[in-house]
Amino acid sequence: MSGRAPSLLGDIMTKSHSDNKPDVIEIDKIVNGVARVLIRWNIHEVPAPVMDDDEKSRTQWEYDQEVIMWTLPTPDLTPDQIAAYFKETQTEIEGFAKAKRINWKRTDKKIDITAVKETYFL
User: Fold this and answer.
1) Contacts of 73 (CB under 8 A, 6+ apart)
2) Which of 21, 38, 62, 107 has the least C-beta neighbours within 10 A?
3) Domains of the chain, residue spans
4) What is the per-residue DSSP string for 8-32?
5) Residue 35 has what pLDDT?
6) Is pTM, for the whole model, over 0.85?
């Protein structure tokens, strides 16, 4: 058992693994001013599984990861401006990704939206 506190959702969240140390924020792609961003946290080294007797023991990186879509303040930013923007907003973006991961509730049950009464907000 590791020395880390258990996840809020127990074992239902899986960890990601990599042989290379991952960046905390990685911009996968940007389309029409919306970035697909990979957010990683709880990054630490762990022993990698040994697949056969001839393989040497090694370590790998284990981490939590969430993929989010993040709208840029304007679609015409240069690469340097995008890098600066993500550096400035890193804490906000990480918080959003972690909240998305923790608050997501998966259900296989179909939700009947016609059964919901209409509510009007003034």
Assistant:
1) 85
2) 107
3) 16-115
4) TTTTSSPPEEESSPPPSEEEEEEET
5) 95
6) no
